[in-house]
Amino acid sequence: MTKDKYSAVWVSHSSIKDFLKCPRAYYLKNVYRDPKTGHKIKIVSPPLALGQAVHEVVESLSILPVDKRFSNSIIAKFAKIWDRFSGKQGGFPNFDVEAKYRERGQRMIRRLVQNPGPLANLAVKIKMNLPYFWLSSEDNIILCGKIDWIEYLPEIEQIHIIDFKTSSKDESAESMQLPIYCLLAKNCQDRPITKASYWYLARNDSPTEITLPDLKETHDKVLEIAKQIKIARKLERFKCPSENGCPACRPYEAIIHDNAEFVSVDEFDRDVYVIDETIYEDKEGSVIL
């Protein structure tokens, strides 16, 4: 088959995670467009706003030479970025909630300043706005994704893949995030991968290393799921596993049934909404964010 990235099915860690959790949620988040605006839809919430603000600070450091990364205050940089997420733009219901999340973000940034670790070392930057490669040219499937940080280890000429976490929860041992990032790094740059880590910024001063994945197994597993996504898209069949909807798709259903508050249109022309937190409640009354 001739490669055509415009007709290909693109998958990423987040879209694969969406599909495995609930195909209906995958559809509403990744495929559906509002018939009135022609835009995709997006939900903003305090945890998402916090994560995006901190990740933007980290990304801004990754493009700078080592000797310039901390020459200006990154606390001030965080404050400037945070302004874009203030109030409804970040899904904050009131000033007190926003203040708590802003303080959490500031603590994470201060942790990076006091314990820069790999951020003070050489880094590899993949020369693509959105790194991608052909997971299967035969099946017309592309895998894409942005890697938070690639530390370069000059003494062995290898790399260390790092993903920054702003949640208080540990990533599941079954998570495919770092394996997918390792797969992307292997195919989008030339240096061997020697380490992969999560950095839990809410509590740890350094990254937590994981066992390197078997990239052949990762490739095969990702391709298998991607083929399921391709079939679902072709058949337009995206069914929630729960008869009455689940915490993954319920918030998006609220949007298409006009039970959400419109906030703005983002830089990717997605319509951004705030959802009433009760929409996220499961049968035990816990909140899924």
Verbal overview:
- With 289 residues, the chain is of the alpha/beta class.
- It contains 8 helices and 10 strands.
- The strands form 3 sheets. Strands 5-6-7-8 form a 4-stranded mixed β-sheet. A 3-stranded mixed β-sheet has the order 1-4-3. A 3-stranded mixed β-sheet has the order 2-10-9.
- The longest helix has 21 residues, at 215-235.
- Residues 278-289 have low confidence and may be disordered.
Core attributes:
289 residues, alpha/beta, four-stranded mixed sheet, three-stranded mixed sheet, globular
Structural class: alpha/beta
Please state the average pLDDT score: 93
Anisotropy-based shape = globular
Q: What is the β-strand count?
A: 10
The Cα radius of gyration reads: 20 Å
- Provide the succession of SSEs: EHHEHHHEEEEHEEHHEE
Counting H and I runs of at least 4 residues, what is the number of helices? 8
Indicate the low-confidence ranges by residue numbers.
Answer: 278-289
Strand order of the largest sheet: 5-6-7-8
Helix content: 25-40%
Strand content: 15-25%
Q: Characterize the main sheet.
A: 4 strands, mixed
In short:
This protein is α/β, with parallel strands linked by helices.
Show the helix and strand layout:
Elements: E1 9-11, H1 13-21, H2 23-30, E2 41-43, H3 46-62, H4 74-82, H5 95-114, E3 132-136, E4 141-144, E5 149-153, E6 158-165, H6 177-188, E7 193-200, E8 208-209, H7 215-235, H8 250-256, E9 261-265, E10 271-274
Parallel strand pairs: 1-4, 2-10, 6-7
Antiparallel strand pairs: 3-4, 5-6, 7-8, 9-10
